[in-house]
Each structure stands twice: as C-alpha cells, then as structure tokens.
Specification:
The chain contains 6 helices and 5 strands; from the N terminus they run E-E-H-E-E-E-H-H-H-H-H. It is of the alpha+beta class and 182 residues long. It folds into 2 domains: 78 residues, Beta-grasp domain (Ubiquitin-like (UB roll)); 86 residues, DNA polymerase, domain 1 (Orthogonal Bundle). The longest helix is centred in the middle third of the chain and has 16 residues. GO terms for molecular function: 2 iron, 2 sulfur cluster binding; metal ion binding; oxidoreductase activity, acting on the aldehyde or oxo group of donors. Pathway: Alkaloid degradation; nicotine degradation.
Length: 182
Amino acid sequence: MEADITLTVDGRPRALRVDTRTTLLDALREHLDNTAPKKGCDHGQCGSCTVLLSGRRVVSCLILAAAADGAEVTTAAGLGDEAAPHPLQQAFVEHDGLQCGYCTPGQVCSAAGVLDEAAAGWPSAATPPDDLAEGSAPVLTDAEIRERMSGNLCRCGAYAGIVAAVGDAARAHAPAESGGNR
C-alpha cells in the first residue's frame, strides 16, 4: 500500500508517494536524494541517521515516513552550508570532531538537539540534582555532553573532538546573563 505524504525537508516543502513501510531515512535518501543522514545499523543503535523532526532529534531509520507526514525535517545539510556553516558544523571542523565523516551528519544533528534540550532545561542521567532547579538549564559539562550524545557512535573514535565541539558551541551560545556553560 502507498501513501501520499508531504514533508518540509531543510526548509523546502516536498511531496512524495511512498510505500507505507518506508522509513523516514529511506524516504530522505532514496526518494528525495538527501544523503546527509546515513544508513549505519538500520536498527536505531548507531545514530548515523539522526535528524531533527519538528525540532526534536530522532533516529530516522525507526520512523515510518507516513508517520512523519506534515512534519518539518532538518538534516545536517539544512543546518548550514559551506558558505554559512552552522556554529556546530564549524566547531566540529575546528575541534577535529570527525575522521572518516560517516557519522558526522548524525552527530551534528544530535548535538543541535542536545543544545536545544539543555536550553529547555531537560535533564539527563548525568545532570547533578543541584542543576535541576525549576527554570534552569543544565550545565553542559564534558560528562553531560557525553551522556547526551551517547546514542551516536563513531567507529573512528573522534569522541574527544566531538565533546569539545559541542562544548564550544554551547559556550558560544549561552545567554550572557547566565554566565554558565549551557
């Protein structure tokens, strides 16, 4: 059975017809030629296919495209480009947060989600109880970043650069009045 769906991908409305069993990842890659999200494990375990779905980070290999009908999808390609890179993309380059680059689009999308989640005050398993005051944002320490990014694997082991890149981007965009490392 097929379904007609509409997605806004990287700011551009796209209409397509997909088999109802098609994942969002396959719709993006095979139907829309958007190869930013990568097919790694195809089981939701590696994070290579991470995109932002209506602002929330998701592994696109586990979501049916038909279930995302009407949603806004942002891939790493939609965050920025060569002429105007997103601050996270720039930080990944500056901190050598990549080696082969296969996982990088998923890492960057996940990192964007991490920054938004922390700014919204969402705790993680690593958030100290003192950081859970109502209305406050958790401090993105290296341990906090590692916990929040733990769903994104890097076969090359570029984790030190990834953590540094996310921390740098978090500090660059923390509100001045907080004085914190969001």
